[in-house]
Amino acid sequence: MSKQQLGVRALRKELSGILKAVEQSGQPVTVTSRGLPQVAIVPVTQHDLPNSNASKRKRHTTGEEHVQIIATLSLKGGVGKTTIAMHLATVIAEHHALVTVLDADEEVSALRWQQHALADGVRLPFSVIPADRNSFMRQAKDLARAGHIVVIDTPPNNREVLKSAATIADVVLVPVLPTGLDVDRLGTTLDLLRDLEAALDEFNYAVVLNRYDARKGMAKEANQALDNLPRLTTVIRALASYEKAFGHIPSDLVQFREIWNELTGSTVPAEVVP
Ligand SMILES: Nc1ncnc2c1ncn2[C@@H]1O[C@H](COP(=O)(O)OP(=O)(O)OP(=O)(O)O)[C@@H](O)[C@H]1O
Ligand SMILES: [Mg+2]
After folding, report:
1. In sequence order, what are the residues at sequence separation of 6 or more whose Cβ sits closer than 8 angstroms to the Cβ of residue 52?
2. In the chain, what's the furthest Cα-to-Cα distance?
3. CA distance 269 to 273
4. Which CATH code is given to the segment(s) 59-264?
5. Distance between CA 252 and CA 40 in Å, rounded?
6. pLDDT of residue 271
7. Which CATH number fits domain 4-45: 3.40.1350, 1.10.3470, 3.40.1620, 3.30.230?
8. What pLDDT is recorded for position 66?
9. What integer pLDDT is reported at residue 12 of this predicted model?
10. N or C: which end of the chain has fewer CB within 10 A?
11. What's the pLDDT score for residue 273?
12. Measuring from each residue's beta carbon to the nearest atom of ligand 1, which residues come in under 6 Å?
């Protein structure tokens, strides 16, 4: 299949005709500048249309400059919201000077994590601050405007906080444990998120499987069940190091670097790279 090529000047003049040609021929067109390929205009296939699993899996990828506020949330408790928030914040702090975890949980687990570290004389590579009860959407936006990457840790069973966090987040991560029961119970959280999705212009959420153990058949089944949902490809394994991280600087970061790459789309899909 030979790709049609054209220069940037021709593109400016003839864009609408070219788009029509791409649509009708189903063939990509490569745009060149000084003879070198720059970008490709690729026809949309069934694969890319909304409701296909592939497109659902890609939705959470927004580009690093667009990921300023991330929320970990679920109506269910104990699924790993705080663990993920703190590990992800550590990874983000490898590249960004200003990273803040906004603790919106009255149990203040993230704040207590920081306090325990400080008591041992250890400063986390980011700050954890309590969310203002009545104005935390503004608080998160103000931090983002001041250049912070904000990770919001939320409480379980709190629809109001969940909705507020999801409304302002560029990306929402919904951890789920790898059992049939847990995947089934995702429904209520996802219903709330879909409701918000209907009301907001831009909304990105992805389910992330946590405490995955490939030796367990049930975990594999749960992993497959998530393929029907917007999800991260990365699964977070069940590791003692994650359990022991409370009160310390998280050190086992490989999977969370993968998650950050996935969220920021640093692996550009091959078909749009000329
Ligand atoms: N991938 C993992 N491997 C091993 N242990 C994990 C993993 N993720 C979370 N845990 C452990 O599971 C427990 C619950 O995790 P965490 O506190 O992060 O969940 P949570 O969703 O924030 O809970 P809550 O709803 O109470 O705020 C903690 O003891 C944590 O160390
Ligand atoms: Mg928590």
Report:
1. 46
2. 66
3. 7
4. 3.40.50.300
5. 38
6. 30
7. 3.40.1620
8. 82
9. 63
10. N
11. 30
12. 77-83, 105, 109, 156, 210-211, 236, 238-239, 242-243
In 3D space, the residue among 211, 212, 209, 210 whose CA is nearest the CA of residue 226 turns out to be 209
* Distance from Cα 79 to the centre of ligand 1, integer Å: 6
User: Who surrounds ion ligand 2 at CB < 5 A?
Assistant: 81-82, 109
Report which ligand 1 atom has the smallest distance to the Cα of 107.
Answer: 27
- Tell me which of 73, 83, 112 to substitute to probe ligand 1's pocket, judged by most ligand atoms within 8 Å of the beta carbon: 83
Ligand nearest to the CA of 80: 1
Low-confidence ranges of the chain (pLDDT < 50): 1-2, 46-59, 268-274
In terms of phi and psi (left: phi > 0; alpha: psi -120 to 50; beta: otherwise), the region of 157 is left
CA of 91 to the centre of ligand 1 (A): 18
Evaluate whether 4-45 and 59-264 have a shared fold. Answer: no
Specify the pLDDT at position 53: 39
Q: Which of 182, 185, 235, 243 to mutate for ligand 1's pocket (most ligand atoms within 8 Å of CB)?
A: 243
Do 100 and 126 touch, CB atoms closer than 8 A? yes
Which tokens belong to 186? 């995702």
Domain range summary for the chain, segments of one domain joined by +: 4-45, 59-264
pLDDT of 8 reads 65
Residue nearest to atom 6 of ligand 1 (CA): 243
Long-range contacts at 7-11 (CB < 8 A, ≥ 24 apart): 7/31, 7/32, 7/33, 8/32, 8/33, 8/38
Closest residue by CA, ligand 1 atom 29? 243
